[in-house]
Amino acid sequence: MSRSRPSAIPGPRVVIALLLLLGLVSVMLLDGYLRAEVGNDQRIRSGASADKVPDSVLDGGPLLSFPGGTARTQSVPDKTIVLTFDDGPDPEWTGKVLDVLDANDVPGTFFLVGSMISRYPSLVRDMVDDGNEVGIHTFTHVDLSYQGASRITRELAQTQLALAGAAGITTTLFRAPYSSTNDAIDNYSWPVYEKLGALGYTSVFIDTDSEDWQQPGVDKIIDLATPKSGKGASVLFHDSGGDREQTLEALPRYIKKMKAKGYTFTTVSGAQQQDEQAQAQSGQGTQAPGGQAATPPTAASDPEQAAHRKADTTTLWEGRALLAAVAVAEWTMPGLAAVLTVVGVAVLGRFGLMLVLARSHYRRRNRRRFVRGPAVTGPVSVIVPAYNEKECIAHTLNSLASSTHPIEIILVDDGSTDGTPEIAESLGLPNLRVVRQENAGKSSALNNGVRQARYDIVVMMDGDTVFEPDTVHRLVQPFGDPAVGAVAGNAKVGNRNTIIGAWQHIEYVMGFNLDRRMYDLLRCMPTIPGAIGAFRRAAVLDVGGMSEDTLAEDTDITIALHRAGWRVVYAEHARAWTEAPASLGQLWRQRYRWSYGTMQALWKHRRSVTDRGPSGRFGRVGMPLVVLFQIVTPLFAPLIDVFTLYAMLFVDFRASLLAWLAILLVQLVCAAYAFRLDREKYRYLLMLPLQQLAYRQLMYLVLIHSCVTAATGGRLRWQKLKRTGVVGSPMSGTESR
After folding, report:
1. Burial of 95 (C-beta count, 10 Å sphere; 0-12/13-18/19+)
2. Which of 149, 396, 641, 711 is deepest in the core (most CB within 10 A)?
3. CA 234 to chain CA centroid, nearest Å
4. Residue 137 catalytic?
5. Is 60 exceeded by the pLDDT of residue 721?
6. How far separated are the first and last CA of the chain, in Å rounded?
7. Identified catalytic residue from 137, 143, 209, 238
8. pTM of the shown model
9. Is 464 an active-site residue?
């Protein structure tokens, strides 16, 4: 109860938590972009007019460049083959294609997809080191005729960066997806090629298509790839995009066949230079449209590598950074998918376990199988710790005054400055004692109340909570069994008529109370809620009272009681109505304290896993369940929503949405059953989808924040939540149903 005013500026741990989330989202976006651009644009233009494209380009050779700004086409010289491969590199097929080329001592020109380069850079290094040539096939294999200038620039730049990172080079060769031959150029794509030419690119088409992508059969592939007698050809094969077994079988036979016919094999740059040399020897320049001679570019000293340029230092390091980021994404996403699969199974398993055990608990409870010994009718002490509770304290004490069970009320005022003890005394309740102490915290106030208590059973509640008339009586009945050391009551949200209140109401009914039914049957209840719990006074003193070591004193003492050999049970019919946080800021502070306090308590009692005998049941059963269901699963479960969004954008929208809705349906069924057991109105379940989308993400950030605080050894002080006193009296049974 020592309070500190929260700062309006996010602390470093909040920033770290947000940065972790931002980093994860960035990795997912990068991984998705490697597979398909957002929206997965698969449009392919066909049948467009080409009246603006020069006839000399449409009818010219397959190599299109723009020296001096004027379009020029070149053909592959006679008796020469340029083997081109599209859509790689592929981890299964590209290496095998390279082996075939190396075994037959012929080069190839590979038009690479940037996203594939980023994922398999070692294959690119191998093909360049082996003397092959590489060109750009865009980054995401998208039809550029549909794209704007910025997208085209990005597709080229990103692929060049990937090339630089993989092999330390850039290239001047380009092949557009879905545009294999010159007649694929139309009025929409022509400006794209003009722009590429202005940037120094040579656009490479084909005049001979093996159609290996259709898998027509090995003999057919060889036949289709064979040019007319004596003619040169730019031939298309594929090293990716599907099953390439026929390609691999056809390729060595094709190479041997063409060599037997006197053909030689070269790269695109080699064909260009051979063409230029032939033109120079004949004394003729290559004709550009309009009849003007176009000046050929200067040939590189190594014809096989004329299209390659050594990447400058900036591009090189940017490319390496891109590949490093991609490597992180490539390792992270499969790992995350595996983790989320496990978490998903755990979440669904938990729902199933809760449903089965909750039903069994409900039936056995109502048959009184858990109640042993005589009814408890003797008076008990009710301890109410309070700090600045002027809005609520009168409602709390008046609700206790109407109790059907004999009680004494001990209000322990922890140094309030708002007149809380004076308000309590002014009520004139005959069974009320007000104990004042200097501000020392909630645990200290509770321990003081235990020392002041006159009776063997003590009930603890918060100063913002109200009890029903029979709550105390129902709560203390399990103490007829001398083995019971503590009893958890059923805490309910009183201010549930707001969005935030409804979210918490669903959480209390579905999560907390179903959990308690499950833990009760398993005899490993982890927490007696601070809003409503009862203890044997001797048991509390036996474990040293309420500890001040953690912020979750309720979880701390519950685990301590288990380890001391006491039994802890749940009395679902003993209901208390509490005022839940009414704003996101207050909710964050409360759940942050709960999460961090739970971690502290679990760490404090970590040696419980080695406890033996009946007192070791919590360590053997409860500790693993609490860690799994209250830390690990909540930490990763919200990522299911993020991963679903990723799958909707980059994988399969419909299937991903249906999977998410299926999980939501399971949760809805579970929640509906919990509401039925607690006799609550089903209308609040209309808020469940929104709760999953918004509230769960908030809880994720809270838990990340708590984990960061725990990892950095930070300390968190108790914070007083703002109360309004709206929970003035307990709801009747008909109002809650």
Report:
1. middle
2. 396
3. 46
4. no
5. no
6. 35
7. 238
8. 0.67
9. no
